[in-house]
Design brief:
By secondary structure, the chain is of the alpha+beta class. Strands 1-2-3-4-6-5 form a six-stranded antiparallel sheet, covered by helices on one side. Helix 3 runs antiparallel to helix 7, helix 3 (108-127) packs antiparallel against helix 10 (272-284) and helix 5 (185-191) runs parallel beside helix 8 (231-240). It has eleven helices and 61 strands. Helices cover 16% and strands 36% of the residues. A hairpin with a 4-residue loop joins strand 37 and strand 38.
Length: 893
């Protein structure tokens, strides 16, 4: 909690608060040992346990300790008491430069005197290779004696040489933006250098730009860059707006400012010492008007002669002034909406039917990454520079999901094989970040090196993890998807994955146990760019003004584009992406997710539909006699329930009715019972119910970890299921089925499950062979998901069935084939036989493609293995992308 008057930190007693901001809270304190007043800076209470903020706090102490200059506030030391860490610094009396400017512009001589002392402070820091990165009037104190003290090196870092290029996020200038809290970020944005605003590497020249902005503000009493509407508008001005030097009357000062405020790093002032020298020259050489010529002429002629050059000069000056006025006062041209079509890569198609392999634009607006499927069926991520007509595949990203960018536009993160990974676009293999227990469903990366991500699962929260790798932790209490960092890097958008209309929330890294504030009602996840929230209403992409300081919308939502393609019916994941640089990309077309059940033969030829019903269908299971089909289907409220289809008539009947999710149904061998998982207690437990719908569901097994039914043994006595282990991946276990599984008084004792397969990897989607002697399953133990078959109940060696990756294994009813699906959706058939107790794999052939991999068991096999019932979304995946530049211009139409 905040410190109060009288509180003590070691031998320092708090006297009064001095101020607070995103980088810390500052108090006046008494050093009771040396009997002197000091300034004590502590982290805000909400961030006191944040390891990233603590590391930055320690870095500030070390930087200040390395600096010893009369124009830099002195550090006395670090103190830690009762778990609270504080910087003890020189107490600087006086007022901030920001407060001085509020009273009006400073006279030129006073401005230059202050500017010279700031230059000396920066020069001392730069000589030690330290860049301040947050120079602004609020970080400059002026004592009553006129001595300048530069404060707040909380964002400072060791700089790379001016010519170097570094990927170190600690040197990323966007760190300034995201590390500044609401309420101070506008100031930081207004003093950022163009390279900071664009997300490029910084060196001491970034401080020189900020120095020029501060000097201009002292001389004019106004901010040079004040976008007014939002941070994004301010940053846009920093990057593009004309710099008006006309208010600066002194030509030498204008020259100095022009060199400081040059957007080109090559021609900008290279050393702050040059500014100090220029100020010395200006102050030592008072400007005076030129003396008139014409001596020796008659008075009238002399007068005319004297007036002539002044007249000529006046005309010339008027012309120059007119040109300068035209140049500096010209209103920036109105942004023009530019619409471009992005075609798929050569020999490939955009694959929006893939598990959320949606497009993502780099923060600097130069590249786009998306999922595409090559003509040979290989699906992976592709990278394209927006100034190029060609795209290149990213090696090692086969079947990757949900790509998103690092803030420096160098790395792409994605989900693959139950892992969150990242890949350097400059080259190299994917690097694991952390294990995830389900498919990735959204991610965002801030400049502090924190990644937010969400996974498949109704009650799954948004997680956070360090971009460098490690264990993930909750960032929301529960029920969050599709996170998107706001500019301060601490707050983020996410949607409530349990609500049908998907309200948009704002969460905070500092309050992971607190439900986020609802800021908008949407029909999709939301993004933020250029001062607007972007989200869907129905299938129209809307933009609504949003104040990132107040965390609230400030105006009505306006349409940008209609007919946006969405991936699923429930989550309505829209195919669009936006970058802070102002680029927007999207796809249009009929929404995906309206599934149909289709019969196909072994060549993929459609034999017919299972009725005319359409909806969002997940896992399916044909009854042993082939007369009924069980499926979990989702409604608009977001609830998954089980339905049973009469195969002959194609008519579904609802089977479960509870308000929670019921998934992955499996039949008993006699067809009289359905086994399934349900999350009625916050995680998925195992249930069964008579397939004719009579009676109630019986709880078979519950514990603290989610479990999912995989298969029932041919004799009906064993239930094979998967469960996530605490220190292992997804494990396969066996539950002995009894007539009654309950544990209430008078009922038989519950049966404890036994482990069948338990490894550090993920084993799942298992199925007993028809004779019960083998179990086919998928595992990622090799680094790529493959299909295996192992003897049951063991022991014995397993046999790999797939060659180039595969999952979702299903047995033919006579045990002569195992069907499986490759990672790009191709259905394969492998001939198998047991000879001398050993499973042998024969011919493997491709049947057809188009199997959905992201929603459980999405196909099943007729008894003879000659036809297949397939969940089909029924929409062509290949379509062009539309790229909009200056999309905010569409809001004015």
């Amino acid at each position: 909690m905040p410190l109060s008057i009288g509180d003590k930190l070691g031998h320092y007693e708090i006297v009064a608060p001095l101020g607070k901001g995103g980088m810390g809270e500052v108090y006046r304190a008494l050093d009771t040992q040396l009997e002197r007043e000091v300034a004590v800076k502590v982290l805000p209470y909400a961030m006191a346990n944040d390891p990233e903020r603590l590391a930055r706090f320690d870095r500030e102490a070390k930087i200040l300790a390395a600096l010893n200059h009369p124009n830099i506030a002195v550090i006395y030391g670090l103190v830690e008491s009762s778990g609270q860490r504080a910087l003890v610094m020189e107490l600087v009396q006086g007022e901030t430069l920001a407060d001085r400017i509020k009273r009006g512009a400073l006279p030129q001589d006073e401005s230059l005197t202050v500017a010279r002392q700031i230059a000396e402070a920066l020069e001392a820091a730069h000589e030690k290779n330290i860049v301040h990165r947050d120079l602004k009037p609020g970080n400059v104190m002026i004592t009553p004696a006129g001595v300048v003290k530069v404060l707040d090196f909380g964002l400072a870092a060791m700089a790379s040489p001016a010519s170097s290029v570094s990927g170190d996020p600690n040197n990323s200038p966007t760190l300034t933006l995201s590390m500044t809290q609401a309420g101070t970020i506008m100031g930081t944005a207004a003093y950022m250098s163009p390279e900071q605003a664009a997300g490029a590497t910084v060196d001491r020249r970034a401080d020189i730009w900020s120095y020029g902005v501060v000097l201009w503000e002292m001389l004019t009493g106004k901010r040079l860059f004040d976008g007014g509407e939002s941070i994004s508008h301010t940053l846009a001005d920093v990057l593009r707006a004309p710099i008006n030097l006309e208010p600066i009357r002194s030509a030498p000062v204008r020259k100095l400012l022009k060199r400081c405020l040059d957007r080109s790093l090559k021609t900008r002032l290279q050393s702050i010492a040059e500014a100090r020298i220029a100020i010395d020259e200006i102050q030592s050489t008072p400007e005076s008007p030129a003396q008139p010529s014409g001596a020796g002429l008659q008075p009238e002629a002399a007068s005319r002669a004297a007036r002539l050059p002044w007249a000529i000069a006046a005309v010339a000056l008027a012309a120059v002034t007119a040109l300068a006025t035209i140049h500096f006062r010209e209103t920036p041209p109105e942004l023009r909406l530019v619409n471009t079509t992005l075609l798929p890569p050569d020999n490939a198609d955009y694959d929006f039917s893939a598990p959320f392999a949606m497009p993502a634009i780099s923060p600097d607006g130069t590249r786009i990454v998306y999922g595409a499927k090559a003509k040979d069926g290989k699906q992976q991520l592709w990278l394209r520079r927006l100034d190029s007509a060609t795209a290149q595949p990213l090696p090692g990203t086969e079947s990757a999901a949900t790509p998103f960018w690092s803030p420096d536009s160098r790395w792409v993160a994605f989900g693959q094989e139950n892992r969150l990974k990242k890949i350097d676009i400059q080259g190299g293999p994917p690097v694991p970040i952390t294990d995830i227990t389900n498919a990735l469903r959204g991610g965002s990366w801030n400049a502090d090196g924190v990644i937010l991500f969400s996974i498949n699962g109704t009650d799954s929260p948004v997680f956070r993890v360090a971009a460098s790798g490690g264990a993930a932790a909750r960032a929301t209490p529960a029920g969050g998807r599709q996170p998107w960092f706001l500019p301060d890097g601490r707050h983020f958008l996410y949607i409530d994955s349990k609500a049908g209309d998907m309200p948009v929330h704002v969460g905070s890294l500092d309050e992971p146990t607190k439900a986020g504030k609802v800021v908008a009602q949407a029909h999709s996840p939301a993004a933020f760019a250029l001062g607007h929230l972007l989200y869907l209403r129905e299938n129209t992409l809307m933009a609504q003004p949003f104040d990132v300081d107040q965390l609230a919308t400030t105006g009505e939502a306006m349409p940008i584009a209609e007919g946006i393609l969405t991936y699923t019916n429930l989550w309505r994941i829209p195919v669009f992406a936006v970058s802070p640089a102002g680029l927007l990309v999207y796809a249009t077309g009929a929404s995906r997710g309206q599934s149909r059940l289709v019969w196909k033969d072994r060549t993929g030829r459609v034999l017919g539909n299972l009725g005319d019903w359409t909806g969002r269908i997940g896992g399916i299971s044909l009854s042993p006699d082939g007369k009924r089909l069980a499926a979990n289907m989702i409604d608009r409220s977001g609830n998954d329930d089980l339905w049973i289809f009469d195969v002959a008539r194609g008519i579904p009947t609802r089977f479960t009715f509870d308000p929670k999710n019921d998934l992955e149904p499996h039949w008993s061998p006699d067809g009289n019972t359905l086994y399934f998982g349900s999350d009625r207690k916050g995680r998925f437990d195992l249930f069964r119910k008579a397939s004719n719908g009579t009676g109630t569901e019986e709880l078979l097994l519950e514990d603290s970890v989610s479990k999912y039914v995989s298969s029932v043994s041919p004799d009906g006595k064993l239930l094979l299921f998967r469960r996530n282990g605490e220190k292992t991946g997804s494990d396969l276990l066996i539950l002995l089925l009894t007539p009654t599984q309950g544990g209430a008084p008078g009922e038989p004792r519950k049966v404890e499950p036994k482990v069948f397969l338990q490894t550090p990897f993920n084993e799942l989607r298992a199925q007993f062979s028809p004779d019960g002697q083998l179990v086919a399953y998928q595992s990622n133990e090799s680094g790529v998901t493959q299909v295996y078959a192992a003897p049951f109940p063991g022991p014995g060696g397993k046999r790999q069935i797939s060659a180039d990756g595969g999952g979702l294994p299903r047995w033919r009813r006579d045990g002569k084939e195992i069907f499986y699906v490759t990672q790009d959706g191709q259905l394969m058939a492998a001939e198998v036989a047991v000879r001398n107790g050993t499973l042998e794999v024969g011919k493997v052939q491709k049947l057809f493609d188009g199997i959905i991999m992201s929603r459980g068991i999405t196909y099943d096999v007729a008894a003879d293995g000659q036809k297949f019932l397939v969940v089909d979304d029924g929409v062509s995946a290949s379509r062009p992308l539309t790229l909009l530049q200056n999309w905010t211009a569409a809001l004015r139409k």
